[in-house]
Structure formats: C-alpha cells, structure tokens
Amino acid sequence: MSNSDDRTQTVSGKAAEASSTDKPDGSSRGIIVLCFCIGLVVSLVFGWVVFPKLLYSRKQQPIDFNHNLHAGLVSNGCESCHFLRDDGTYSGTPKLAQCIDCHQDVQGNSPEEAKFVEQYVKKGIEVPWLVYARQPDCVFFSHAAHVKAAKMDCVTCHGDIGDSEHLKVYEQNRISGYSRDVEGASLIGFKKHTWDRMKMDDCSECHQKQKAVMGSVQTQKEGCFVCHK
Amino acid sequence: MKAEENHGNTKKFGMVIDLDVCTGCGSCMVACMAENNVPFRKDESDKLKSITWMRVYKLSNGKPYPETDICYLPRPCQHCEGHEGHSPCVSVCPATATDYDMQTGIVSQIYTRCFGCRYCMAACPYHARYFNWYDPVWPKGMEKYLNPDVSVRMRGVVEKCSFCIQRYQAAKNRAFMEGKADIEEGDYQTACTQACPAGAITFGDLNNPAHAVYKLKKQPNAFRLLERLGTNPKIYYLSSREWVRRAGDNYLKNEGPAKIG
Q1: Could you write out the DSSP letters of every residue in A2-52?
Q2: How many percent of chain A have pLDDT more than 90?
Q3: What pLDDT score was predicted for residue B261?
Q4: How far is CA B7 from CA A145, B100, B102, in A?
C-alpha cells in the first residue's frame, strides 16, 4: 500500500517540474501553430490526393481496343460485338468468335493488333477483358429492359467508351474490389454526367424519375428483388 | 379487415400444394438446392446447421396400426403478406435486409444487407429461414455447377426461399425481347414445381383468375399453416383428410380447422 503512494508522489513531482520548464512563451506558441498547420496541410494532401491513388489499383486492359476504328469496319454497328440474345440475356464483352473473321491473320502494322493475334487468336485464348461497369455479384441488371424496352442509349450509362480510340485504365478499389466506374470518380460523390457513377442510388434515381412502380413495404421505393438476386 | 387481402391489380405469386398427391420423394428439395446454390455440408445430420429452403416434413396421425396414416408436407418460405405486407420477418428486420414487394408478393432477402442478428428467424413461425454458420464449401469442381443467376451467400447471413426470383427476372427479360407487356403463367415456374414428379405443386399468380392456383386455393379442402396467427401466407395446402387439415394449426379438441380468410 505505502509503496504505491510513494510512486504517485514521485510521478506528480516530475510532472510539476516538467510543466514549469515548458511554459510556452510567444515563439514556441508560434511553432505549435506552425506545426499544426503543416500537419493539417499534410493530412489534407494525403486525404485528397494520395489516398485516392492508393485506394485504387490501376490496371491496363490486356489489349487496347479501338472502338472508333472498328465502328466503320463492322457491318452491324455495336451489335456486331455487343448484342442481346433472343432469351433477353446480354452477350457483354465480345468473344474471339466476333473478331476471328477479320483477325485470323495480322491485318495492319499496329503492335496492339500483332499482340492480339499472337497471344490470343493463334492460341485460341479468350481475352480477359476488364469490365468497367461490372456490378457486385448480388445485383441483377437487364440490358433488355433498358436498351430494348426503354430504348435507352448506351452513352447514358457508359459514357463515350463506344466512341473512344483507346480503352481507358481500369481502376479497382483495393478494399471493395469494385470498379471505379461503379463507385464514381469523385470521392465526395460529385456527379456531372449520368454515367459518372452507377451505384444503387443512381439506378433508383432514374427509376423514380421514370415512375417505376414502388412496391417495397419497407422503403416505399422499388422492391429489392427488382435489381437484386 | 379481411385477413386475405389483395394487392389491387398487382401480382401475388403463391403456391398450392396437394398433400394427397405428394409422395415425400424429396425431388423438390434437391431441385431447390441445385437451382439456388444452397450450401450443404459433409455431415448433414445436425438439422440446426443444415440449410433447406424447401423442406419436406413427415406428419403422422399418431394412431396405432391399422389406423396409422402419414402425410408428407413440403414447406417453402410461406411469403406471408400479413396485414399490408407486414409479415413477421419483415416487421422485425432492423436492417431492411428483408422486404415485402407489393408488386409480386415476394418476401425478398438481400444477403449483402443482412448482418446476421437472426431476429427474422425467431419471428418466423414456419422455420423457413436459415442461418449460414459457415462459409459454403463446394466439393472440388462443383463451383462450376453453380447457378450464375443466384448470388452465393457468405457466413453470418440468413437465407430463405425466394420463389426462384431469378426465373422471374429471366422471364421478364424474355418478355422484353418479344415485346410482350406481361409474362404468362408458364414463363415463370419455380424449380420445385417443375421437379415434382407427382405434380403436387402448382405455382402462379393468386390474383389472376386465368392461373390454376386461383381456382385451387378456393377449394373446400384448402388450408394454410397456422391460419389463426394472421400471417396470411401464400402457400395453400390441399388435403381430403381431416386430420391433416387439423395438423395445420394447434387446434383444441373441440375446434374444427379454421376457414381461410
């Protein structure tokens, strides 16, 4: 018992000494403020500039496909490669079968095409395309509803990918594993175009505008099983 | 208030199961597991840990031979409407992970939203909800057989029968392609309905007079499980046997089976 009392006395004694020597005068207060400001700036830069870069890993597509070039070459527009099947499912990214008629052998002198023919066509390996718009596993999305029934344009949800000359970098969230095109380019949720972000609320926002039927008892919005599976 | 309510003009999917026809073969259970990526374990003897969206129960009249009689009773999620969609599980879910859709009458379960509190399991009087005590483990190679239209679940969430919602979504997709305004009865059938070799299960829109279930549910032999709780379920059972109809609820000796609605 007496031991612990002694100890507390010595500790408080030291604390008293320390506070008497460290009493801040004008200049050291300035240093404290300066340190605080530097710290603040460093954290802001880290939070707004460094962290978003760290959060997303950047991946190149296996082959840099040129949409603009092919638009004039194929016979049936986008549907030559991205088409709806009769049962309403979507073909999605093209398979080799859609390329093979033209790319059996190298056509021009672009290194990308040579790589494509060498590494994939000749070996019969499908290209592992990275899908910018890929939704989580639990989401049901229907191109038939939007493209066929509602006659919507691809640009509304995908931006100008269909008219681009190069495939952009695919950015994947290291924590969630989702694509940045789904989560939105801006971390604070700022959105300029309809295709900037495609999260649950973005789907719902348009559906509500389009007067979709609200069946959910809990949320008075759409039933969860409209978009989930 | 009439217990059996309508959703107005909207759909209300439900089932009529003829217990006089059911042989208890269990095809519905197998078809359901395969269709919906239901996880299973090597040792399924502990029924507290196994998951069966569709489960066949065996009832007995408890009489000695020669009066002994048994009945098999398939039990999917009853998709209770309750009163205005307040089914027991939906009312207690603190996460909005389970919901009642007035457009289809289907009680949905969003696995990514569920955090595993299991209130819904306590609230469900039919034991139709199951908890994932473990992450699913598929025997080597079996992951290739998984249904891509059904999301797989993870440890710590509750799951249950969805009336094969993926088949409804696929049916609507086909209708969009054909330019049809609506789907027909045959376009959307659950896996258990199609798998039943005896044809005991009939599935359809209970609100649509053109569907078989509409007439079947009005048969005098029809009853629902725990009718008097007011859960207003959408699974109707048929049986010509009085003791089976009585087994649907906890009736006293002097009570007869309750009338529907």
Answers
A1: HHHHHHHHHHHHHHHHHHHH----HHHHHHHHHHHHHHHHHHHHIIIIIHH
A2: 64
A3: 66
A4: 24, 12, 6
The pairing of strands B235-238 and B222-223 is antiparallel
SS3 A150: coil
B177-204: average pLDDT = 95
pLDDT at position A191 is 87
- Domain borders along chain A are 2-57, 131-226
B174-184 pLDDT, tens per residue? 999 999 888 99
Cα–Cα dist A188/B29, whole Å: 47
Percentage of chain B lying above the pLDDT 70 cut: 96
A18 has a pLDDT exceeding 70: no
pLDDT higher than 90, residue A227: yes
A138, A157, A137: which is closest to A146 by C-alpha?
A157
Q: Which amino acid is at B215?
A: K
Inform me whether the C-beta atom of residue A34 falls under 8 Å from chain B C-beta atoms.
Answer: no
Interface check for A25 against chain B (CB to CB < 8 A): the answer is no
Instruction: Write down all domains in chain B, each with its CATH number in brackets.
Output: 13-259 (3.30.70.20)
Question: What are the tens digits of pLDDT across the range B134-150?
Answer: 999 999 999 999 999 99
| CA pair distance B168, B125, nearest whole angstrom | 26
| CB-CB under 8 Å, B111 with A217 | no
- Cross-chain Cβ contact B111/A138 below 8 Å: yes
Query: What per-residue confidence (pLDDT) applies to A107?
Result: 84
pTM for this one?
A: 0.91
ipTM over 0.85: yes
Partner-chain residue, chosen from A86, A137, A216, that has the shortest CB–CB distance to B177: A86
Report how far residue A54's alpha carbon sits from residue A130's, in angstroms, rounded to the nearest whole number: 20
Over residues B199-213, mean pLDDT: 96
DSSP code of A177? Answer: -
Q: In sequence order, what are the residues at sequence separation of 6 or more whose Cβ sits closer than 8 angstroms to the Cβ of residue B136?
A: B37, B39, B152, B153, B154
Residue A48 CA to residue A187 CA, distance in Å, equals: 9
Alpha carbon distance B184, B201 (integer Å): 18
Best residue in A140, A199, A216, A217 to probe B by mutation, most B CBs within 10 Å?
A217
